[in-house]
Amino acid sequence: MVNFWHQLAIINKPFLVLAPMDGVTDFVFREIIAGTAKPDVLFTEFTNTEALVSKGYDNTIHRLKFSQAQRPIIAQIWGLDPKNFYTTARLVKDLGFDGIDINMGCPDRAVMKMGSGASLIKTPTLAAEMIAATKEGAPGMPISVKTRIGVTTMVTETWIRFLLEQHIDALTIHGRTAKELSKVPAHWDEIGKTVKLRDHISPGTMVIGNGDIMSLEQAGQAHTAYGVDGVMIGKGVFHNPWVFERIPKNHTGAESLQLLLKHTKLFCDTYPSPQRFPAMKKYFKIYVRSFRGATSLIRQLMETTDFSEVEKLVKQYI
Question: Cβ neighbours of residue 253 under 8 Å, at least 6 residues apart?
Answer without folding.
Answer: 290, 291, 294, 317
